[in-house]
Design a protein that fits this description.
Blueprint (H helix, E strand, L loop, with lengths): L1 H13 L3 H16 L3 E8 L4 E8 L10 E3 L3 H9 L3 E3 L21 E9 L2 E10 L7 H24 L15 E3 L1 E4 L2 E8 L17 H27 L9 H10 L1 H12 L4 H17 L4 H22 L4 H7 L6 E5 L4 H6 L5 E6 L7 H9 L3 E3 L13 E5 L4 E4 L3 H23 L14 E6 L3 H7 L5 E6 L1 H5 L7 H14 L4 E5 L26 H6 L1 H14 L6 E5 L5 H24 L8 E6 L8 H5 L4 E4 L1 H9 L17 H17 L3 E3 L7 H10 L3 E5 H12 L3 H11 L5 H14 L11
Bound molecules: phosphoenolpyruvate (PEP) and magnesium ion.
Phosphoenolpyruvate binds next to β16 and α21.
């Protein structure tokens, strides 16, 4: 039965038009299960009706015509109870309703299962038989499994508009598609899909007799591609920080790799033409990458394929797809849409025309997302299972803050989106006016605002000079941008540029926090539960070589300065702190000796720990004896307290730092730390959200570290509230039972302070 189920699903998924796919599906189910009837009813929420959309066994002429209320008949009962209904003799059931059009008098046995997507009943699939019998457990399980698998296809088809029931009525009232926020900002634009003209994956392999010609064709194509990539990397250099353009180094490395060329030429020698030889070699490489557990490595398959398609286009001698795209005129700004947006695609697109980015696959780890953030272009990633056609040449509203994309905008929605954009612009103007003013609340409490840096710390610092320093420098980002561990000297130069740029400001450098969702391509870690595994301090303590090199580089970089703070990530026990401090002391003594020889002074750095693993909340007094400061990582603290993977879209609605337990934990951390007289910063995303900052300030936190984009906004919020007021709000907040209630109360408060609109808490 399992194999048949798989086959049915496969065939169903391959049929583009959903009405046709459903008609085929019912036939396949009838044949496989040997029943007399199989039917599908879809829900129309606007009219609160279930419509017969496909059937085999009932009267065909009833399709599209028979409609029943949401609570009508047995079909309505299945939808209402949201569970399967298995009845021996349907006409005798008290809820049975006779619809003469379908001609079902002779059928007795009935089984129906709801088709549910994200808690919403999309429709019902039912089987019937003339005999009086109960369907077996196997049959019931089959139908439930089938219903679960077709739900997503139905949602997508409805979105794409290939579903046509009830005179083009839309089945779902909303066209909101949720992806992963890639880069912040709002934009209403036109989707422009970048469709690759020549794709190696679909290339039909051909033989060739002319070996010399094919080799020369391949070599020339590689040369052209090489110069195109060089040009692209030059082009983006002006727009992005230097370390981001390191992405292009990877392309050069791939092009220079002798092995690739050798393998392709070997295939040509076997009698294949240049394009086919490239196809064989690249597919083999890409498959190997795609099958890797590590998400960063999987992302690299995209780079290999993108680059190879560029070589292929040059073998064929065709132009780039972008030329065609840009010939099309649009009144709306362009939102670049692609199955997998690659860094060179972004580099190619003229910057002044690029207003937004949507990548169907990919995460906020993808190079495209990293680049988008660096270029300040709003982006949404990972809109799984949405066809490009749905987005191409269509009006789209993109919300890079929440990862939301709205399609098929009604006039009202369009107006709402335009309002949101206008509000954002207005807010930005207001905020910009006060950007240079100090972060002091209306009742006189000074809050220290710091920057979370990493992508290119110096540039962020230059742009947001009003920050009081760097509260979190994520050192792993420069590690991730390279193809090998950076040397001590490379690290020294990077850290020194940051420490010396603002000698008066505190700079908190976190030791390497890789593992979890932050992999290093050159140091693969394969684990079943990476977030609970070899991450952060656990990894670096097991590799004192990596830790010592990094700490030495930090200390050397701080020679003659006194602003270095070292922060330890993922601490879950005091032993880890002791061990890390022992290594820091060792590095300190080594560097001090070298410094002494050079007649330079080495100041002792402040050492702190991240509070992001729940265990440490219960050891704050003990921890405080060992370190100089704490920094609360609300991103991981939320993930670990709630047992919700911070990157898993399926449980995204459960991930909220406004959950009362998280807020109570944050309050507890502050209260105990204050007793211990130890400084605490919050460096998780919550500190950069207006509602979050407000609540944190009320709890007593006076140092908030956030991404550079949020700095001005939070400064503005601080200047427009009073702590006294916020404390009253906090009392109410801490009495709530759910995150939704918390959010509601905070949003109401922001509204009364005329700080609502875009500053509202979202989740
Ligand atoms: C956090 O966990 O809140 C944090 C700031 O660290 P990261 O997001 O880098 O894990
Ligand atoms: Mg963290």
């Amino acid at each position: 039965m399992l194999t048949s189920l798989k086959k049915i699903i496969q065939e169903f998924a391959q049929i583009q038009d959903l009405n046709k796919a459903l008609s085929r599906l019912v036939v396949m189910v009838k044949e496989t299960m040997d029943v007399d009837v199989c039917s599908i009813y879809l829900a129309n929420y606007a009219k609160q009706e279930l419509i017969l959309t496909a059937t085999v066994g009932l009267d065909q002429s009833a399709v599209g015509k028979v409609k029943m209320g949401f609570y009508e008949g047995l079909i309505g009962l299945v939808g209402d109870r949201e569970e399967p209904l298995n009845i021996e003799n349907a006409p005798e059931h008290p809820r049975f309703k006779h619809f003469p059009e379908v001609k079902e008098e002779k059928f007795h046995a009935f089984i129906g299962t709801p088709i549910i997507h994200q808690r919403k009943v999309l429709g019902i699939i039912a089987m019937q038989q003339t005999s009086i019998r109960r369907f077996s457990e196997d049959e019931e399980a089959f139908l439930t499994t089938l219903a679960a698998q077709i739900a997503l296809e139905i949602v997508n088809a409805e979105m794409v508009g290939t579903l046509n029931v009830d005179n083009h009525q839309q089945l779902l009232e909303s066209r909101v598609v949720n992806g992963i926020p890639g880069s912040p900002g709002l934009i209403l634009g036109q989707g422009i899909s970048y469709k690759i003209k020549h794709d190696l994956r679909t290339w039909v392999a051909k033989k060739s007799d002319d070996l010399a010609q094919q080799i020369s064709l391949y070599r020339k194509a590689v040369e052209i591609t090489r110069s195109q990539v060089s040009k692209l990397s030059e082009q983006v250099k002006e727009n992005i920080p230097e370390d981001v353009s390191a992405i292009f180094q990877l392309y050069h490395q791939l092009l220079d790799a002798n092995s690739l060329g050798r393998e392709v030429e070997h295939k040509i020698h076997e009698g294949w033409d240049a394009a086919s030889s490239l196809k064989f070699v690249v597919e083999n490489y890409a498959n190997r990458f795609e099958n890797m557990e590590d998400p960063y490595m999987r992302e690299r398959a995209v780079d290999i394929i993108d680059l190879s398609n560029r070589i292929l286009t040059n073998i064929v001698g065709d132009s780039n797809p972008l030329a065609d795209i840009l010939n099309e005129k649009s009144d709306l700004p362009y939102i670049l849409v692609a199955q997998e947006v690659s860094a060179p695609m972004l580099a190619e697109f003229p910057r002044h025309l690029l207003a937004g980015i949507i990548s169907i696959t990919g995460s906020n780890n993808s190079h495209a997302a990293i680049l988008a953030r660096a270029m300040g272009v709003p982006a949404v990633m990972g809109l799984h299972k949405i066809s490009l056609n749905l987005l191409n040449k269509k009006e789209i509203f993109l919300d890079g803050y929440s990862g939301r994309v709205i399609l098929k905008l009604s006039d009202t929605t369009r107006r709402e989106c335009q309002n949101l954009i206008a509000q954002e612009e207005e807010l930005q103007t207001k905020i910009a006016k006060e950007a240079e003013y100090p972060s002091i609340t209306q009742d006189g409490k000074a809050i220290s605002l710091l920057v979370n840096a990493g992508l290119s710390a110096t540039i962020e610092m230059e742009q947001f000079i009003q920050g009081d320093g760097v509260g979190l420098y994520r050192t792993e980002i420069p590690f991730m941008m390279r193809e090998r561990f950076p040397s001590e000297q490379e690290q020294f130069e990077l850290y020194h540029s940051l420490l010396s740029a603002y000698p008066q400001k505190e700079i908190t450098m976190r030791t390497l926090d890789v593992g979890g969702d932050k992999p290093l391509s050159y140091f693969p870690i394969v684990e079943d539960n990476p977030f609970l595994g070899w991450r952060g301090i656990r990894l670096t303590l097991d590799h004192p070589d990596i830790f010592l090199v990094q700490v030495r580089a930090m200390l050397r970089a701080s020679l003659g300065l006194s602003n270095l703070h070292i922060l330890l990530p993922m601490i879950s026990s005091i032993n880890e702190v002791k061990e890390a401090k022992r290594l820091i002391k060792q590095a300190f003594l080594e560097v001090k000796e070298e410094a002494f020889k050079q007649g330079k002074l080495l100041s002792k750095p402040a050492v702190g720990v991240m509070l992001e693993v729940p265990a440490v909340i219960f050891q704050i007094p003990q921890l405080a004896q060992h370190v100089d400061f704490f920094s609360v990582g609300t991103n991981d603290l939320t993930q670990y307290l709630l047992a919700v993977d911070r990157n898993n879209a399926r449980v995204a609605s459960l991930y909220s730092s406004y959950h009362p337990s998280v807020l109570n934990a944050l309050q507890q951390i502050m209260t105990i730390s204050a007793k211990e007289n130890i400084p605490v910063t919050v460096c998780g995303e919550l500190a950069g959200e207006p509602a979050g900052a407000l609540i944190l300030m009320a709890m007593g936190y006076s140092k908030l570290s956030m991404n550079a984009y949020s700095l001005r906004k939070i400064n503005w919020v601080i200047r427009n509230i009073s702590i006294n007021d916020a404390e009253g709000l906090l009392k109410q907040v801490l009495r709530q039972e759910t995150q939704q209630e918390v959010i509601e109360i905070i949003n109401d408060y922001l509204e009364t302070k005329e700080l609502g609109g875009l500053l509202r808490a979202g989740k």
